[in-house]
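Q: Could you fold this chain for me?
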Amino acid sequence: MRRRISLTMVAMVAGALVLAGLGTLGLSTLDNVRLTQAQLLTESRQLGQGLEEEVTAGHPRDPLAVLRTAISVLKAPLGLQGEAVLAVTPEGNLYNFLDPKAPVVLPGGLHQGDLDMAQLIVSQSASGHRGRLAWGAYLFSTRYPVATTRSFKVVNLVVLLTRESPTGLTRATYWFAVAAALTLVVALVAANRLGYRIARPLRDTEAVTRRIAEGDLDARAPVPEGEGAELVSLARSVNLMADRLAAARGAQRRFLMSVSHDLRTPLTSVRGFAEALADGTETDVAHAANIISAQARRLERLVGDLLELAKLESGAFNLKLAPLDASRVAGEVVAAFGPQASDLGLALALAPGPPALCQADPDRLGQVVANLVENALKYASSRVEVRAEPPPRPGAGPRVVVEDDGPGIEEQERSLVFERLFRSPSVTGRQLGGGSGLGLAIVKELVEAMGGTVRAEAHPEHSGTRMVVELRPPEVRRAPARPSPAPAGATSEPGRPAAGGGRAG
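A: Sure. Below is the predicted structure, expressed as structure tokens.
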């Protein structure tokens, strides 16, 4: 990489020098052409004026001889390379004044079409170029006496001069080449050093990412302080990625350990009582069968919640969102959990209030409220209250709040209760039959799939916890049921505790 960077930078500098040199050469050549045109225009005017004076003051009987002599006399001091003195007819055509029968031959290989005769006739002078061949022309009128008629004849003569303009290659070109060579040497040294400074952090970072890909999550990229904000940001991003991967691996290990523990406990009971029945050491068959059945239901609940959580996280289910009254769904859940709350000696109540219209899946919303109520029953001291509140402000959605008067949740743990199998080390709840510890994790996935949010709060008036679910407001125009971008899985009846939960999540 270092070599590629160095060669690329040197090639860029060389290309810039070549472009600069070609551009300078082209502009210099164009400037020389324009300068040559101006010089030829001045020289053609001088030659024309000299010829006009010579013809007027020369021998009246032989103006052609005077003209030839004048051209030969004026040509040397002017240093002319290609010249012609031609006559112009009233129609603007050229002919050979010195020899009218001879063809018109323009110097430098020019053609009459290359000359701007219209401008020449109007302004008496014109110039132009064809490639590097520049030309300048001057038009003047002269008269000479005709001996046979004793009259004067007027003729329009044009003096045409041509010259190759010099190229832009001068002595400065040599010094430009020297300066370009020195520039390339300096660019090579600078590019080599800069390439090393860029390539080294990238090479180190690439080696660290390879180690991370191979499973070494302790690898960290060195942060190249002072080497550029982009390289520093890249190294820090790689390290942040490694930190999060390590945290995710740790969470996965803890999750697997928790699942293994939760699976092993009922399996141990099932196996123990099954072996006792087989050996004949357990005489109370009905008691053993009840325990095996209860533990089997616990296993079924745990496996079902794991499968449902996997579906939620992978997006493998559909939601049927529709406008509904959240207070009605909450009332059905409270009615279903009433007998269980009475058995626990707890008061479970639905606070009265106006309708709370929202956009949600009725089955999934019932599952959310059921999980929250079941979680509250684990930790409540005497009372659990459920209420559905209308939107607190225009444009917002309604809320479903489940409150208990239990010991509450520490502030630093409120953001963790919705993680899978999280258990608070400071609070112990009731062991309700069939709980899997995944209830609040499922609540979070379902609420976010329906476009809402859920959070845990401390009770504002006494000890306890408030679980607040904010739902989407109902759509203005009702639409047919449509699939949601979130997951879909087995639905649960609103009145049935679909998944266990607790301060353990």
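A (continued): The mean pLDDT is 77.
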